[in-house]
Specification:
Blueprint (H helix, E strand, L loop, with lengths): L1 E9 L4 H11 L3 E6 L6 E7 L5 H9 L5 E8 L6
Antiparallel strand pairs: 1-3, 1-4, 2-3
């Protein structure tokens, strides 16, 4: 299992809509947080080993209505 985090910038006034759709419509997303700063949401995602991260982000996350931009962080080791 591979863990990635995706920061999402939403269109103005769409953060709650995007958060709701991400949490309910995409099985690989385990947690959705609202954040301050440059991005509006932080998505914690679990992908199967060997999954194409770029394809997942492009086909599932970026296609959610109201998503304006994304920034993906790939993780290596969990310490806790």
């Amino acid at each position: 299992m591979q863990t990635i985090f995706v920061q999402v910038k939403c269109e103005l006034g769409r953060s709650y809509d995007v958060a709701d759709k991400a949490a309910t419509d995409i099985d690989e997303i385990s947690e959705v947080y609202s954040t301050s700063g440059q991005y509006d949401l932080l998505l914690k995602c679990y992908l199967d080993d060997g999954s194409d991260v770029g394809h997942f982000v492009n086909e599932k996350v970026q296609r959610l209505a109201g998503v304006k931009d994304t920034f993906t962080m790939i993780t290596f080791k969990a310490f806790s």
